[in-house]
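JOB MANIFEST
job_type = single_chain_structure
chain_count = 1
residues = 370
[input]
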Amino acid sequence: MARPTYILAGGGTGGHLYPGLAVAEAIRRWQGEALVVFACSDRSIDRDILEPLDYPFTPQPVQPLPTNVARWPGFLGAWLRSRRLAADMLGDLQPQAVLGLGGFAAGPVVKRAAAAGVRSGMLNPDAVPGRANRYLAGHVDAIFTQFESTREHFAAGDRDKSWAVGCPVREGLAEASASEARRVFGLSDDRRTLLVFGGSTLAHSLTDAVVNLAEDLESLSDDWQVLMPAGDLAERALEAFRQRRINARIMRYCDRMDLAWAAADLAVCRGGAVTVAELAATGTPAVVMPYPHHADRQQWLNAEALCQTGAAIIVDDRSAAAANVDALRQHLLPILRDGSCLADMRAAADRAERRDAAGVIAEWMIEAGR
């Protein structure tokens, strides 16, 4: 009997790949012998995420749709090469089902699979679908969303195949031990932890704003400590906090986000779909600073449900360092100083709905072979 095989197509950001990895784990829980192959982008972040794992992956030359007409020939050439690569993958692997993970790297494989009659689905964890997912929606058999409201952003004819299942998060994310997390990161047991996390790209404006609050945070050092993956701002952050009397653990990158969430009593973070899903899964209260340059305010809308429950507040990223520092002084520092406010946010976060989105999607894919 042929080995059950599935293709997960997408990449270019951690926000596309990490939900796919959660689905891959769920498939293997159901079918331990399954082969799960990723068709990703050729960006370095995809290789960095996938290479340490035991899932085969194939980078595609496909590029995002350019806004500059002069770049269209390069885009079309890359699209055609990716279409041929997709045809070869489908012919060689004969997958039972294909799942698009969102973004430009999902297009070639999902469209080819759908045209060939392979069961094809699409994951859209953001509140508002992007161009690639709106394009693919008419071709797939099912659309899996994080939010019920996302359905209204698709064409009327595609809404009946949209299922609001949540956003897949990796198994065990909410089961990490707080005591182990503190030990691994060198954090104190007798202080609360502020996690500063700018998403898979470790957003500069968010990280920079907290670095500029080092003096304010020093005044709270008896009660709080800081955990911050800071990317290429790590050296600057280390220098800023080294001069202050506060326990701050700064690193370039954190490859154990399960432990980071376990350590966190409060997060300052972006509003990416995966981050919002992980806040809900781990019951972590948050000050969310959405990415400010999406015309559709995508990250603001992602975080809105958590804000409505009281588990989070939104602070607009003004893209100006001084304005961001002032905004965090106004909204973050009062939470750090008021234990009852933090307790209320934690209680609201603990009540957040938790769904096994990865399991639902994996079961749908496996059903194709039954």
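[summary]
Residues 5-166+355-367 form a domain with the Rossmann fold fold (CATH 3.40.50.2000).
The two ends are 13 Å apart (CA to CA).
exit_status = 0
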